[in-house]
Write a structure and sequence with these properties.
five-stranded parallel beta sheet; 171 residues
Length: 171
């Protein structure tokens, strides 16, 4: 007897940690679907996350994010990437218990190189480098709390990161 569908893996991490790039590569390597809760939210809302933040505010976005995470955890059988701030909600951290959660760890210099200066990232609109550092410092313990594994992404090509994660999932 099998239980409800479950993701093979859930990816968490700061903006610029590689959740989308690594997630797509990992899904390809495993022959499963890739799903991103941010993309789910944009699809349901019919507009980009940056517009949701401007039009309805962060609190509304976080409500949509909680719903998107619950739906994705109950229906995704592939690799699921979460938005960088999804771990902020205690409710989200609680429903991740029992899932294989990989924290893609990144330090500030690499994150800044990867995200640029926050174009399309509403929380990074003002003083992006300082804001990103603050977000990373605030969220790092929360990523660690939900993670069943942590993989360092700094200075590494996506293929090497995927190659490190695949055996972790087969344990």
């Amino acid at each position: 007897m099998t239980g409800p569908p479950r993701p093979v893996c859930v990816l968490v991490g700061a903006p610029g940690s590689g959740k989308t790039t690594i997630g797509q590569g990992l899904a390809d390597a495993l022959g499963v679907e890739f799903r991103d809760t941010d993309a789910d939210i944009e699809h349901l809302a019919g507009k980009p996350i940056s517009e949701i933040f401007v039009d309805e505010g962060e609190e509304h976005f976080r409500t949509l994010e909680r719903a998107a995470l619950a739906t994705a955890l109950a229906s995704c059988t592939g690799v699921l990437a979460l938005g960088g701030g999804a771990v902020l909600a205690e409710e989200n951290r609680a429903i991740l218990v029992g899932h294989r959660v990989v924290h893609l760890s990144v330090e500030l210099p690499d994150a800044v190189k990867r995200v640029g200066l926050g174009i399309g990232r509403p929380l990074l609109a003002i003083n992006p480098r300082a804001t990103l550092k603050h977000l990373m410092d605030q969220r790092r313990p929360l990523y660690a709390e939900v993670a069943t594994a942590t993989v360092i992404t700094d200075g590494r090509p996506p293929e090497a990161i995927v190659a490190e994660i695949v055996p972790l999932l087969k344990r």
